[in-house]
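anyone seen this seq b4? input:
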Amino acid sequence: MSKRKYVRIRSLESGMKIDQAVLDKRGRTLIARGALLDDYMIEALMNRGVTGVYTVEGEADEPEVQEEEKIPEKTLEKIEKLKVEDRAKVQLTESVKQRVAQGVSYLYTNTESEDFILATNAITGDLMKAITENDSIAFDIHALKVSDEYTFKHSVDVATMAMIIAKQYGLSEKEIYEIGIAGLLHDIGKTQIPSEILNKAGRLTEEEFGIMKKHALFGYTILKEKSEISNPVLMGVLQHHEKLNGQGYPMGVPEEKIFTYAKIISMADIYDALVTERSYKKAFSPRDAVEMIMAMTDELDIEVMRSFLNSVILYPVGTTVKLSNGEKAKVVENNPKWILRPKVVGLKTGRVYDLAEDLACASIVIE
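predicted toks r here
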């Protein structure tokens, strides 16, 4: 059984298998994911200021036996009969993922480049095309991964989710496009944060967190010098950590002074941060992350939250889940109004559990 863990640079040893790709400033692969580290590679990582990397131990997990082999024929027929395809989800082809990953890497290492705006527009255009090609109105967080490097993955995740949320919110195509730009660049100010703080393999001290909190203002400062960046985009970057109760940062402004772009990016930013594993925390399940967000009504805009809930697909149709009564089940239909409670079919019993509508299922939840 394989085990992934974060290892500080000085604890790396020759022969360890790296579980992330290491890219140069142009987005080219220096060390491929899955490579066995040697002393030369470890020294190169240290020279680049890398403080730690993810490694994997043990043999690859054996593929699970397909559930379909154990499902009675009548149950399979019932699953097929009841299956309702999910709302159109945004999908990125492998070639687009590669272009986007390289582009974001370039942006975050070349903030002063003359091609900065050109690269930003190219990436946003790719994302916009992916959304409009199949009229996407939803997203599956597991399908968005473009990179193993957290900053790049997070920027693309936030941009893509924010664009879908903005579409559900009813914004125009121009505004959705600008939301994409703001989402891509919302953390650009982290390029000004000392690497020992940015890459610290543990929780930040109060003083370190105070420095980290300046990244939104740093990002605004970087981008305001670029005349092509609109004011709503600037405010989206500056205010993406502001809260409706005035307890956010960097300015602590009240609800009426927070721009819509910032409210949308904040929603996507929080969700992606919750479901992503970091060196100092485990990832929350998408279900737990959604429940946590639903409890943040004093911090997040309720209409934006509603658009988010209408956008996220937690259990794609065809997913096998485990119910609190112990039975495994196959998801056959999602209900946008009750994203935590889809319709499923028990694999052994063939029972249909309409978790959203059937009162007999009120006490049953997906574990």
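The chain has three domains: 3-57, 67-86+316-367, 94-309. Strands lie at 3-8, 17-18, 22-23, 29-31, 52-57, 320-322, 328-333, 343-346, 352-354. kinda curious what u guys think
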